[in-house]
Every structure is written in C-alpha cells, then in structure tokens.
Write a structure and sequence with these properties.
Blueprint (H helix, E strand, L loop, with lengths): L2 H13 L34 E3 L2 E3 L4 E2 L9 H15 L2 E3 L4 H5 L5 H9 L5 E6 L14 H11 L3 E6 L1 H6 L10 H11 L4 E5 L6 H10 L3 E4 L13 E2 L8
Parallel strand pairs: 3-4, 4-5, 5-6, 6-7, 7-8
Antiparallel strand pairs: 1-2, 8-9
Helix pairs in contact: 2-4, 7-8
C-alpha cells in the first residue's frame, strides 16, 4: 500500500473513531420549527426540488465527497452511490489524487458512477495539487480532464484543506499562487468547478475572491458562528462555467 493509500485508509479509521467528532455544537438545538395550525395547503403541494449548477434536483441534499483510493473505499462508495441513486441525491467522491497517481485505484472512485448512473456526481481534487510542491509538478490540463472522465463527473470540486495540510506530517504546505491556479483549473475543466472547504471555515472575503476565479459555487462552514445561525452550509452559485 502506497503512502497515499495508507493515508486514505487512516482518514476513514479516524472518522469512525470515538474522538473524531467536534466538541463544538452544530447549533441544531437553536433551530425551532414553529407549527402552522392552519396550513392551507395539501402535502402534495410541497416541492423540495432545487436547481443546482444547471440540474434540477429532486431534493436539496448532497452526500459530500469522503473517500476513495484504497481497497475498502470501494464498498463505502458503492453503498453511498446506491443510496444517492435511490433517493435522488447529489454525491461527491473523495480526493482522486490517488487514482491519478495509480490508475489501478480508479475503480474505488468510478464505482460511484457505476451505481449512481442518474445522480449528479462531483469529482474531487486537492488545492495543493494545483501548485508545485517541491519537485512535484502541479496537475496539468490532462489530469484535470482525466479526473472528470474517470467518474463521468457533472462537476469538479477543489477541496480547500489548508489546516489539514499544515497538521499532517506529510502535508503539502506550499500554497502560494492558489488563487490563480484555481482560476486556471476552472478554465481547463470541462465541467463546472466547485470550491469545497473541508471544515475549518471560510470568510466572506475568501468567498468573494473565489467567486472572482470563476468557480460555479462553493461550500463551507462560515468562519464565524453567530448564535442564531440556522444553516452552516453556505453555497453561492455564480455564473456557470463554460463547457
């Protein structure tokens, strides 16, 4: 097992461990749904469908990209994909870096499209792979296109994981030039590009800078946590990417 494969396996093990959950509340206890005693509508009148990057989705829910790149990920992604297909959900994959380095691992990602042929599927690459890391060259246009082709992706996420890279012993810590690199990725990608922050938060200033790169949308937890925050998932859909 390569270093990348081992790390992907460790990520899943850590996610399933007792100490992996944040001690900070998601503030669901502050959400109160006031009852409407006279609704004046039929249940069949309720439509929860939504428009997402040019596709009409039956539900406003997304299975966020989690894993891939090691043997056990095949079953995890197969099960998630089957759920997405059955329930009409969008679904993402974990970072595809491992399969771009080792094509033998592609099945751990392509299984998502295999078992969710009708779902909106979002591919995934890391921001750090868009700029050079020492002697390691950044992804080029061919690799961006291959990530999309590998899973028949409808969109491509660039995950923004600066804190993770800084904490990991083997993290990729050169992040200079990311803004321009993301803009270049947008130009190369045959599908819309989404910026996906991985949990540390995103300020409005960063969101504004991202919009200027041409990304079609972004998803993040706000960096500030107001007490009455209802929904911590922020998505700004801008002009769709060309192509």
């Amino acid at each position: 097992m390569s270093g990348i494969e081992s790390r992907k396996s460790q990520h899943v093990e850590l996610a399933m461990s007792a100490g992996s959950e944040s001690s900070r509340s998601a503030l669901w206890e502050d959400v109160v749904l006031p009852p409407v005693a006279i609704p004046e509508m039929a249940l069949s009148d309720i439509d929860v469908s939504t428009e997402f990057l040019g596709r009409r989705m039956p539900t406003p829910l997304l299975i966020s990209g989690m894993t891939g790149g090691f043997d056990e990920a095949l079953e995890i992604n197969r099960n998630l994909a089957a759920a997405a297909e059955e329930l009409g959900l969008a679904i993402g994959t974990g970072s595809q870096r491992a399969a771009l380095a080792n094509p033998a691992l592609e099945a751990t990602y392509s299984v998502v499209r295999d078992h969710a042929p009708g779902a909106y599927v979002i591919g995934n690459i890391g921001m750090s792979q868009l700029v050079a890391q020492g002697s390691e060259a950044p992804f080029d246009e061919t690799q961006i296109e291959r990530a999309v082709e590998m899973i028949g992706a409808d969109a491509l996420a660039v995950h923004l994981n600066a804190v993770e890279e800084l904490i990991q012993t083997e993290g990729d810590r050169d992040m200079a030039g990311l803004h321009d690199a993301i803009a270049t990725c947008v130009g190369w990608s045959p599908v819309p590009v989404v910026a996906k922050e991985t949990g540390a938060g995103m300020t409005s200033e960063t969101a504004t800078r991202l919009a200027a790169t041409g990304v079609a949308g972004f998803r993040a937890r706000p960096a500030l946590r107001p007490r009455l925050l209802i929904n911590w998932t922020v998505r700004c859909v801008c002009a769709p990417a060309s192509g």
